[in-house]
Design a protein that fits this description.
This protein has eleven helices and two strands; from the N terminus they run ααααααββααααα. It is an all-alpha fold. Strands 1-2 form a two-stranded antiparallel ribbon. A hairpin with a 2-residue loop joins strand 1 and strand 2. Helix 1 crosses helix 5 and helix 5 packs antiparallel against helix 10.
Length: about 325
Amino acid sequence: MFSLDWIYYAISWILLTWHSAWDAIGVSASAVIGTNWSWILAIVFLVVTVRVILFPVFVKQIKSQRAMQALQPRVKELQEKHKGDRETLQKEMMELYRKEKANPLMGCLPMFLQIPVFLGLFHVLKRLDPANQGKTRYGWLVDQFESASQAKLFTAPIAGKFGSTADELARLGANGTTVKVIAGILVLVMMGTTYLTSRQMILKTGWAEDPQQRMIQRLMLYGIPLSLLVSGAIFPIGVIIYWVTNNLFTLGQQQWVLRKFPPLVTNTKPGTTTARNPVQPAKTGGFLNRNKPASTPAAPATPKIAGPKPGAKPTNPKKGGRPAKRQG
């Protein structure tokens, strides 16, 4: 059977390393405002570590999405050409993706690569039970294990969860109502930030023309956040902190990358497409009004016609052009 111990060891090592770093800096191990910040910051910087490692993959994801966007007109042509012949359409589209070196699954790769990290942290935090006999497993010391099992966020233990039993709460020395309130708020924040990360990417890159790609986009936008309403009840509070931090990091990272590499096409709704590379309006205002509006070329001036001088006889241009009559 395939063992995931290497993931548990890796997650434990990163978590303990960051906790030791914050402890060495002077972040108090005791609770401040009901929170053990050294452990909370260790979870937050576990996210930072993982995201820095996965940053090249994230850039590849953006490039792959750009390639998929560039192929949308050709995909639409294939859909019109093979309307009603789904099998041929799929073969033609796969051949197109292969020729252009575009991977439809690349958009989900960073999320898939983070699943082992999530599962590893879930397993490690789930073990933080004072009654656990295997405290030194995965490289932990006994005092580290006991410190982490007592770590809290606003008096709610990071090992506690919305669905914790009365026995689990008693061993953690936690109040059931407090754990449910903190966990419930965090689950709602987790759902909201998960929705926002998907929405931000779709609004910036546009809805896909390919029905399968659009279905994946809808799943990520609506399906995953809604599923967290149920699954969030079994997540330890420390895992939800990881998820929320990861979402916030994703929002900032996507904003930076999408500004640096603007999308080729911007779709606001399925089936609605704007022109490629639209001309952006000139920026106005700015700090202390330093950015002035772009000047527009002045229209050519209409030549002025001089009027008749005062007292002069009116002239008839039609008559002026005729030759004078000869005298007989």
